[in-house]
Write a structure and sequence with these properties.
The chain is α+β, with helices and mostly antiparallel strands and 159 residues long. 43% of the residues lie in helices and 18% in strands.
Length: 159
């Protein structure tokens, strides 16, 4: 979108509608509370029928284990994990760091490493589906696998 922005359309919003929009807005605000310095600023430009976001374009790579060789990158991931733990202890769902690519490849696809070795969380979806029923039934049934995969990747990256 333009030369310095990315526009993100939610394909699920067509099926779930306003419930998904409200969830994603809540997820973003909660993520800002816990991960403020890492969350990419997101502007909501939702239309009547579709959840749409605009973010600053960040040139970078998906976070992989190789990035842990850089102490600065590793320190940031440790801070993100500490915030994740605080979030969980406060009774909130996990933030999805693995993303869809992380389910099939050894990466955390919702975190980009930019050219300055800064970590950028590009998707702030929380791992819960109760607020977007009936579609949420599918997500809820998959949560143990998704969370286990994410925890596995985090352990592998930080060991």
């Amino acid at each position: 979108y333009d030369t310095d922005s990315v526009i993100k359309f939610s394909s699920l919003s067509f099926f779930v509608g306003i419930k998904l929009h409200k969830k994603l807005c809540r997820d973003y605000l909660l993520s800002l509370k816990y991960f403020k310095e890492y969350v990419v600023k997101t502007i909501d430009v939702t239309t009547k029928n579709r959840h749409i976001e605009i973010q600053e374009y960040i040139s970078g790579e998906l976070l992989r284990k190789k990035h842990m060789e850089n102490p600065y990158v590793k320190k940031q991931l440790i801070e993100i994990c500490q915030s994740l733990e605080t979030m969980k202890n406060d009774g909130h769902p996990h933030l999805d760091l693995a993303g869809s690519m992380g389910m099939v490849k050894p990466c955390l696809s919702n975190i980009l490493v930019d050219s300055n070795n800064r970590l950028n969380i590009i998707d702030t979806t929380l791992l819960e589906g109760k607020t977007v029923m009936p579609l949420g039934i599918i997500l809820e049934s998959m949560l143990p696998i998704i969370i286990a995969r994410q925890n596995y990747l985090l352990r592998q990256f930080l060991k």
